[in-house]
Amino acid sequence: MNKKTVVFFPEGAFGPTNNCVGIGKVLLQRGARVVFVVEESFAGTLEAQGFEEALMRLKPPPEVEEAPGQFWKDFVRDTAPELRKPTIEQLETFILPVWHELVDGARYVDDRLREIFGELEPDVIVEDNVVAFPAVAGSGRPWVRIVSCNPLELKDPELPPPFSGYPTGDRSGWNEFRRRYRELHDRLQSEFSAFCEERGAPPLQELEFMHQSPFLNLYLYPAEADYERSRPLDASWERLESCVREVDTEFRPPPGENALVYVSLGSLGSADVELMKRLVYALAETPHRYVVSKGPQHELIELAPNMTGAEFLPQPAILPHADLVITHGGNNTVTESIHFGKPMIVLPLFWDQHDNAQRIAERGLGVRLPSYAFEDARLHEAIDRLVAAPDPRLHEASARLQRRPGTVHAADLIERLV
Prior knowledge:
This protein is α/β, with parallel strands linked by helices and about 425 residues long. Helix content is about 40%, strand content about 15%. It has helices at about 15-30, 70-80, 85-120, 135, 175-200, 265-270, 275-285, 315-320, 330-340, 355-360, 375-390, 390-405, 405-415, and strands at about 5-10, 35-40, 50-55, 125-130, 145, 215-220, 235-240, 260-265, 290-295, 305-310, 325, 345, 365-370. A seven-stranded parallel beta sheet has the order 3-2-1-4-5-6-7, with helices on both faces. The termini are close together.
């Protein structure tokens, strides 16, 4: 890979970016030139990890300086009331507005992306986004799609619709959810597909907002939690299972003999200060030790005496020490928890988090609880039970996943493509 240029283009959120960082570091060590295309608000964060950066914007510059990913943090904070609704109601009040923002961003940045690819002349582009960017598929260069969301995004008629959180064993509601999704999104998707064609990319498949790569497609989900499909994915798809980056930070667990629980609602979920305070209050009543990722509103969240935490935490360094993970169900945290063999309590908020929560519960790898209506007693019972008797399959899965790191497997596949 010496002198080959690999360009990573992850979504402007920490989960997809960290997955790409893990793969990028392997390629960097093998002699490749690795460049990250990132929003201006992320400027310097990838450079500090040894990568080159190419900066772009998804919308006009703000009047004040942004923190990394600030737009989505603000968006979740402002729309938090919508997250209390059933998933079928979120389709109109949350999912559709998100798609609009993503599509608008893809339109706005297309010219800038073409400039970047023209200047860098990459040997391969690696994209981890849920929405298409025509400059990628229309570049004439090999490109890789990474799906770092729940694999229901890769639709199958015999599996629940994505974003629903519906069980695989109960089809009631599936058709209604799909009908409502089509009703709300068909026009936006058709217009966006036409835009992709105008800009030199292929049309999008029906109701899809993202192209499948003709070269290589990767998705992150361990076999222990994956779905049985009625339509197998074609030969361009490869399951990475997990993709955990290495971190240099050392973590020392807080003193004590009781169980250690890692709490993270993600950089977006933790922006809901009321929910974080409610969770802190409930966990303070237990004897366990907690390490809490406080997120962007960290100064507003006061932790209890049995807790320690900070705005950002080195998750891959903490998870090996934890006995249990309380999470929002983001795909990154779910796959990393299985990678380290940790049971989960999942409090889903939006997007594919409902699907991950349902799947973890179905597979016996953890417990799903309602994020805004959980009962303290039910939460306490779930903590005690999962700490005392985690599913032994988690230990087996962890050993298998760590023997074959997804970061290395992905780097091998990208090298082969180049």
